[in-house]
Amino acid sequence: WxxxxxxxxxxxxxxxxxxxxxxxxxxxxxxxxxxxISSFQGIAGGEKSTxxxxxxxxxxxxxxxxxxxxxxxYAVTKWAAExxxxxxxxxxxEHFTYRADAHSTSDDPSKYRPEDEPESWPLxxxxxxxxxxxxxxxxxxxEKHAEAxxxxxxxxxxxxxxxxxxxxxxSGERPEASSMFEDVFKExxxxxxxxxQKLGV
Length: 201
Known about the structure:
The chain is of the alpha/beta class. The protein is 40% helix and 9% strand. It has helices spanning 10-21, 53-56, 70-85, 117-120, 126-136, 142-165, 190-199; strands spanning 2-3, 27-32, 62-66, 91-96. The chain has a 4-stranded parallel β-sheet with strand order 1-2-4-3. It is extended and about 65 Å long. The relative contact order is 0.10. It holds the Pfam family E1_dh.
């Protein structure tokens, strides 16, 4: 899984070359959610062509799919997986979607995009779209959905409480600072030995 911004970095192109040269059985999923942490996808070259087109330059299929359509994503992934398993080599899939929320807790999207942009995204919410499709074909209902949400919420709450019972960062004993240097290398490299010495642990 690769963000669209990553396609403009050298590591991405090294990976594409490796996949093409060795006919690697991989699926390279590029999530084009329109925004990196603070820059529009056009900065990574998305205005000139699709990100999927980059696959073609390496001799592999480059497919673009509506990333908010679960069934379309499933179908293209199934095809690419079968192709890889049968020796067909790598496939690049661009998932055309939208990041409605912040990139991380340190990100404030209101600083770099219009506030109402998430609501105006035309492809809709993927869960809502799948739900409506299943209701239309008689495989789901609003009642079943409400019950599923209730059950899932209860399960997550139970599991969260169970996880908390093992301790959190704010409870119980904290590990010794020296433990971050243990069980990593058989013989500790010099630079880590110096770091440990500086910390006095």
